[in-house]
Amino acid sequence: MDRNLMLNRREALGLAVAFVGTRGLAQDAAPPLPLQTTGLEHLGMTVPDQKASAEFYGRIFDPQLFQEREPPPRYYVRLGTAYIAFGGATDVRAAGANPGAGIDHFCALVKDYKPQEMRAALEQAGINMGTGRLGMPTDSDGIRLQLLGVPGGLARTIIPSTRITTDDAAVEAIGLDHIVLTVSDMEKSSAYYTKFFGQPVSRTKKPERIWFGVANTRLALEPVASGSKPAIERVCVKVAGFDKKTTRERLKKVGVETVPADDEHLLRFKDPNGFTIELKAGA
Questions:
Q1: CA spacing 20 to 30 A to 50: which of 3, 11, 25, 182?
Q2: Cβ 89 vs Cβ 102: under 8 Å
Q3: Residue 30, pLDDT score
Q4: Are β-strands 37-47 and 82-88 bridged in parallel, bridged antiparallel, or unpaired?
Q5: pLDDT band for position 94 (50/70/90)?
Q6: DSSP code, position 138
Q7: Is 103 helix (H, G, I), strand (E, B) or coil?
Q8: With left for phi above 0 and alpha for psi between -120 and 50, is residue 27 left, alpha or beta?
Q9: 182, 47, 219, 113: which is closest to 211 by C-alpha?
Q10: How are strands ordered across the β-sheet holding 82-88?
Q11: 129: exposed, middle or buried (Cβ count in 10 Å: 0-12, 13-18, 19+)
């Protein structure tokens, strides 16, 4: 047999195998929705006094504050692998919060995140992306979900700011455990967040609550109370070495009083802007 013909056949076979392999990889690639996520990572608060809010949370979770390198002023406090961003207040979202204060958005991290592909998939799914280059998916209640790539963390434009005390933090935060949204229509909101996180993992009647599993974190939906506005209602942080009595005493030492909670396994307090934060044991 002609040697050139043998080589041509071998090359053709190699191309065919490569084509099949590439086609298989393309077919095996995960679709953008539901999200391939490593969990909920941070939330953004709009508050009248960003530094004062950061100092309040810093005494609890991490005395080393961070801030944007350039103005306007924006501060950050780490919660283990999570964090809170504090920006200037523009509106009121949280019921009972001070005027000009609200929890602006929460964030989920996405594996192999491609912004343009994600935007196209979201728009095809009929999800409102908001405006601007960094537009966030926004539900029918106006609650915004930011999507960022793994591994997340503070951006390069953020630098260390003041360390507010030489004392240790009141607790050792691990990361977020769950976030609770109060919504106007449970079924509508459930269908919306199913597009991001897949089917709910559980549902309870008393209290009425729908839970989604988001990797090692969770998202819950509750009906909004009469006379209140839908909001990011509560945030729960996992804490190492959590003991209710000891943690309560440590919070009291930094000027934080706990309030009643409907779960005996956690502690709950409100910050100076009226936002509800919970603490619970973490692995």
A1: 182
A2: yes
A3: 82
A4: parallel
A5: very low
A6: B
A7: strand
A8: alpha
A9: 219
A10: 144-149, 102-110, 37-47, 82-88, 75-79, 64-68, 158-163
A11: middle
DSSP assignment letter at 38 = E
> In the chain, at which residue ranges do the beta strands (DSSP E only) sit?
37-47, 64-68, 75-79, 82-88, 102-110, 144-149, 158-163, 172-183, 202-205, 208-214, 217-223, 231-240, 258-259, 266-270, 276-281
Residue pLDDT, tens place only, 128-170: 887 666 689 999 999 999 999 999 999 999 999 999 999 999 9
pLDDT of 5 strictly over 60: no
Looking at residue 55, the DSSP 8-state letter turns out to be H
Q: Is the pLDDT reported for residue 1 higher than 90?
A: no
d(CA 192, CA 125): 10
Q: Are 68 and 74 in contact (CB under 8 A)?
A: yes
41 contacts 82 by C-beta, under 8 angstroms: yes
Q: Give me 144's structure tokens.
A: 């915004």
The C-alpha atoms of residue 87 and residue 71 are separated, in whole angstroms, by 11
Q: Which two tokens stand for residue 115?
A: 């912004």
Q: Find the length of the chain.
A: 283
Write out the two tokens for 252: 């009291």
pLDDT digits (tens, 9 = 90+) for 218-260: 999 999 999 999 999 999 999 999 999 999 999 999 999 999 9
- The span from the CA of 154 to the CA of 156, in Å, is 7
H or E element that contains 13: helix 3-28
Q: State the average pLDDT for the chain.
A: 88
Q: φ, ψ for residue 147 (rounded to 5)?
A: -115, 125
Q: What is the pLDDT of residues 33-50, one digit of tens each?
A: 999 999 999 999 999 999
- Partnered with residue 180 across adjacent β-strands are 220, 234
